[in-house]
UniProtKB/TrEMBL annotation:
Name of the molecule in the record: Pyrrolo-quinoline quinone repeat domain-containing protein
Source organism phylogeny: Bacteria, Bacillati, Actinomycetota, Actinomycetes, Micrococcales
Comp. bias regions, Basic and acidic residues: 1-24, 46-66
Domain Pyrrolo-quinoline quinone repeat: 454-565
Organism annotation: Promicromonospora umidemergens
Keywords of this entry: Membrane, Transmembrane, Transmembrane helix
Transmembrane residue ranges: 103-123
Region (Disordered): 1-66
Length: 588
C-alpha cells in the first residue's frame, strides 16, 4: 500500500524525494497471482537436476504404476491442452486475411479497448461515489450554491435534533420522530416518543462524524409526572417498540440499537454541601469513599443484557465530585457529576473517582487496575477515540511526561504503536483509506504509516505546518486549521503545501484557538469542502455562513449568509438538511 518512489520533478510540491508517499488504487487483480509463470505446465522444473543423456545411470527400482488420481489429472491436462489448441486454431481461421478486413479488426479492437477503459473509469467513479456517500459528511454535489428543495414545519425547531438513519432523515422534536425522505422531504412515518426526546447519537456538537443510527433509540419522559422514562426503538421503516425504564436511570442511546446504563453502586452517595477554601476550591469530607460505577449495555428494545463492567472508585479530584446549586454553591453530588462521551464506537465515562473507556462491544480500553482518576493532575493528557478507517487511539500511560499529550494507535489489523504527539482526526473524509494518519508533535505535523508491516513508520514531516484541527482528508489532500488562523491544504503523500485560505475569509483574528466553536462541521463531494461557520467569531453578531472551498486551489466557490445561527446541518444519503426558524429544510 505504501512505498517510497523516486522524485518526480513534475509532481507539484514534491520537496523531499525520499519522503514521497504514494497510493495504489488497485493492489492486485482477483484471479491473477503475482509473478505467475505462464509456461507449459508439462515443462520440466528448471530447479530439478536432470541426468545427462548417454551416460550410464545407476540401477534404480522400477517405477510404480501411476495411481488413478494421477491418470485422471494427466487426462484432464491433455484435454485442456487439446481444447486450447483447437480454440486457437478456430480463432485463427476466423481472422480476416484481406487488408480491409484487418483494418476493420484493428478499429473494432480499439473501440473495444476504449469501451473497456470507459467502463472501468465509470465503475471506479461509482465506487468512489458509493464510498463518499457512505461517510457522514459525504454530499452528492457542491458544485453550485444549493437552494431550498423542501421543508417540514416544526412547533419548536430550537429543541429539535436531526439524526441520520440509513436512507432516512430522522427529525426528533415536538414529542415525536418523523422519518423523512432526504431527497424529497416526504414524511414516510411518524412515531410518538414522549416529551423532550433524546435520540441518538445526534449531530449536535462538532468534531468527528457520527455513524447512522440503525435502529434509532430515543429516551423521553413517560408523561406520568413522576420523572419516569420510556425508551422507544424505531426501525428505518418506522416500526417501533416501547418499554419503561427504571426510575432515575442514567442512560444514553447508541447507534446500534443499544442503551448504556450508568449506575453508581455502594459507597457514599449522599448529596450535601461541601467546604470550600479561601480560593473557592471544594474539599471532600474526611475519609470520603464514593461509589463504584457499573457500566451496563443492553438491547434497547428488549432489555436483554449485552455486557457489564464495574469501574472501581479511586482517588478522586474534588471538583469531579461536585455540582452547583441555583446559588452557585458547590454540592457533593456523585450522580449529578457523572459525565460521558460517546464518540462513534468508543465510550468514555468519568465522575467522582471513576474513569474508564470502552468499545461498544464491552472491550475495556483503559487499564482497570489503575484507579487514579485521569486526567492526572488535572491536565488533559489525551483521550480515547475511534479512527475513521478502523481501530482506535488512547493516551500513552507509559509516556515519560504525563503532562504532554501522547497517543497510542491501535489498528484493526492488530498493530499497535506509540506516537510522539496526538493524532489529528478528520471531521470529513471521502471514505478512502490513505494508509496514513497525521500526528501533531509539539507545534508541527508528521505523517505515520498505517500499512500492515510498516505501521508507525514516519513518512514525512512538515515543520512549518502547525495544524490545530484536521477538517478534511479528501482526494489525497488534508485541509487543516493552522494555529496562526489560516485554513491550509497539504498533499497527503508528501506534506507539501497546496494552498492557503486567507484568515480573513473565516475572520478568526485572534480567536483561532476557538476555531472548534466557530466551525460547525465539514462536508464534501470530493471536489469541494463545505464549512458551516459562525458569521462573527467574536459573538457580537448572530448568523451563520455556509462557505464552499474548492479543494483544488482553495478558492471560495460560493457562500450563503444566514441570519440565524442554526448550526444543525446534516447529510443523509448525500442530501443536506438543516434546522431553521420554522423547521427543517432540504438543500440541494
Amino acid at each position: 500500500m505504501t512505498e517510497r518512489t523516486p522524485h518526480d520533478d513534475a509532481a507539484p510540491g514534491s520537496r523531499e524525494p525520499s519522503k514521497v508517499h504514494t497510493f495504489d488504487l488497485i493492489d492486485e487483480v482477483p484471479g491473477v497471482s503475482d509473478g505467475a509463470d505462464a509456461a507449459d505446465p508439462d515443462a520440466a522444473d528448471p530447479d530439478l537436476k536432470q541426468p545427462d543423456a548417454g551416460k550410464d545411470q545407476p540401477d534404480e527400482p522400477a517405477p510404480r504404476e501411476p495411481g488413478r488420481v494421477a491418470i485422471a489429472l494427466a487426462g484432464a491436462r491433455t484435454a485442456v491442452g487439446r481444447t486450447a489448441r483447437r480454440g486457437g486454431a478456430a480463432v485463427r481461421r476466423r481472422l480476416p486475411t484481406t487488408r480491409r478486413g484487418k483494418i476493420l479488426l484493428v478499429g473494432g479492437t480499439a473501440s473495444a479497448l476504449v469501451l473497456a477503459l470507459s467502463a472501468g473509469v465509470l465503475v471506479n467513479a461509482q465506487l468512489r461515489e458509493r464510498a463518499l456517500l457512505a461517510t457522514p459528511g459525504g454530499v452528492r454535489s457542491l458544485e453550485v450554491k444549493p437552494t431550498e428543495q423542501w421543508s417540514v414545519d416544526l412547533e419548536n425547531p430550537i429543541a429539535a435534533t436531526l439524526v441520520e438513519m440509513p436512507g432516512v432523515l430522522a427529525i426528533a422534536g415536538d414529542a415525536k420522530v418523523r422519518g423523512v425522505d432526504p431527497a424529497s422531504g416526504d414524511v414516510r412515518w411518524t412515531v410518538d416518543v414522549g416529551a423532550d426526546p433524546h435520540c441518538g447519537p445526534s449531530t449536535l456538537g462538532n468534531g468527528g462524524p457520527v455513524a447512522p443510527a440503525d435502529p434509532l433509540v430515543c429516551v423521553a419522559a413517560s408523561g406520568d409526572g413522576d420523572g419516569n422514562q420510556v425508551v422507544t426503538v424505531i426501525d428505518r421503516d418506522g416500526a417501533a417498540r416501547t418499554r419503561e425504564l427504571d426510575p432515575g436511570a442514567v442512560v444514553l442511546p447508541t447507534d446500534d440499537g443499544g442503551l448504556i446504563h450508568l449506575e453508581p453502586t455502594g459507597g457514599d452517595q449522599e448529596q450535601r454541601p461541601v467546604v470550600v477554601d479561601k480560593l473557592g476550591a471544594p474539599h471532600l469530607p474526611k475519609d470520603f469513599v464514593g461509589p463504584d460505577l457499573t457500566v451496563r449495555a443492553e438491547d434497547a428494545a428488549t432489555g436483554r443484557a449485552r455486557w457489564s463492567d464495574t469501574v472501581a472508585f479511586g482517588a478522586p479530584r474534588p471538583d469531579s465530585c461536585v455540582t452547583y446549586d441555583d446559588n452557585a454553591a458547590p454540592v457533593l453530588d456523585v450522580v449529578g457529576a457523572l459525565g460521558w462521551d460517546l464518540n462513534g464506537s468508543v465510550l468514555e465515562v468519568g465522575g467522582c473517582g471513576v474513569s474508564a473507556a470502552f468499545l461498544l462491544d464491552g472491550t475495556r480500553l483503559d487499564d482497570p487496575d489503575d484507579t487514579a482518576d485521569p486526567p492526572a493532575g488535572g491536565v488533559d493528557t489525551a483521550s480515547f477515540a475511534p479512527l475513521p478507517d478502523g481501530g482506535w487511539i488512547g493516551p500513552d500511560a507509559a509516556a515519560a511526561d504525563v503532562t504532554m499529550p501522547n497517543d497510542v494507535v491501535h489498528l484493526p489489523h492488530g498493530a499497535t504503536f506509540p506516537l510522539s504527539g496526538q493524532v489529528l482526526l478528520p471531521w470529513a473524509t471521502d471514505g478512502r483509506d490513505p494508509g496514513l494518519l497525521l500526528e501533531r508533535v509539539g507545534i508541527h505535523v508528521e505523517a505515520r504509516s498505517t500499512a500492515e508491516g510498516e505501521a508507525g513508520a514516519r513518512l514525512w514531516s512538515a515543520p512549518d505546518l502547525r495544524a490545530k484541527l484536521l477538517l478534511a482528508r479528501v482526494s489525497g489532500t488534508a485541509v487543516v486549521v493552522d494555529e496562526r488562523g489560516a485554513v491550509r491544504a497539504v498533499d497527503l503523500g508528501t506534506g507539501a503545501d497546496r494552498w492557503t485560505l486567507d484568515p480573513e475569509v473565516l475572520s478568526f483574528g485572534d480567536l483561532v484557538w476557538a476555531a472548534e466553536s466557530t466551525i460547525f462541521g465539514a462536508f464534501t463531494d470530493g471536489d469541494t469542502l463545505l464549512l458551516p461557520v459562525t458569521a462573527d467569531p467574536s459573538g457580537s453578531a448572530a448568523g451563520l455562513r455556509l462557505l464552499a472551498v474548492d479543494l483544488d486551489d482553495g478558492s471560495v466557490r460560493w457562500e450563503i449568509a444566514q441570519d440565524t445561527p442554526y448550526t444543525q446541518l446534516i447529510s443523509v444519503d448525500g442530501y443536506l438538511a438543516q434546522i431553521t426558524q420554522q423547521g427543517v429544510v432540504g438543500l440541494g
